[in-house]
């Protein structure tokens, strides 16, 4: 059974998420916030690295690079440039944080591109993608809460979050009109 071919996961999207977590949580080694914060940072990095390991080594025969063809250079370079231009303090950690925010907002593109190429996906893959999209969409109530409770707005995170949520709109339309109705995820022709 070709587990990952059936699931249709993009190795490149997973690698981009790993880059997001490593660059965002690099401060783990010199900025202590709390035990919970540190444990969660290690968890995000370790679990993303483990997924890459599984996809690259344990389940390597099931990964088809001929389908996962999105050029991630087109995401990495602009994210780095935006991170260098838009940050709150021109330091290594702040630039990496900004880079990670911009990269996260487009990290799903290789996965969506793969879905576009194949035209369909297994139900478990669509649930996974919906969870990723919901995770980011749930930041919106957090921003509203922080604005009213703390009077703060993070324009970098808000703009990137709106872009990322926007990238999911087509996917969510098909997800709610087909998958949630018990049908298979298939893109309209």
From TrEMBL:
Pfam family, one: ER_lumen_recept
Topology term for the membrane: Multi-pass membrane protein
Keyword NAD included in the entry's annotation: no
Transmembrane segments: 31-53, 74-90, 156-176
GO molecular-function terms, A-Z: ER retention sequence binding
Database matches in PANTHER family: ER LUMEN PROTEIN RETAINING RECEPTOR
Record-stated family: Belongs to the ERD2 family.
Listed name of the protein: ER lumen protein-retaining receptor
Native species: Candolleomyces eurysporus
């Amino acid at each position: 059974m070709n587990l990952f071919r059936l699931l249709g996961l993009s190795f490149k999207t997973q690698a981009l998420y790993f880059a997001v977590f490593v660059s965002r949580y690099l401060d783990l080694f010199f900025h202590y916030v709390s035990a919970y914060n540190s444990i969660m940072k290690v968890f995000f990095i370790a679990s993303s690295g483990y997924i890459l390991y599984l996809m690259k080594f344990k389940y390597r025969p099931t990964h088809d690079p001929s389908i996962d063809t999105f050029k991630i250079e087109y995401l990495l370079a602009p994210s780095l440039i935006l991170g260098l231009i838009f940050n709150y303090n021109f330091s290594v950690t702040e630039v990496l944080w900004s880079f990670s925010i911009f990269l996260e907002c487009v990290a799903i593109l290789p996965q969506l591109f793969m879905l576009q190429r194949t035209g369909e996906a297994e139900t478990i893959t669509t649930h996974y993608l919906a969870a990723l999209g919901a995770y980011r969409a749930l930041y919106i109530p957090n921003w509203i809460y922080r604005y009213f409770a703390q009077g703060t707005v993070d324009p970098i995170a808000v703009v990137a979050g709106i872009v990322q949520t926007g990238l999911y709109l087509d996917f969510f339309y098909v997800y709610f009109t087909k998958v949630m109705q018990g049908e298979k995820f298939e893109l309209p022709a």
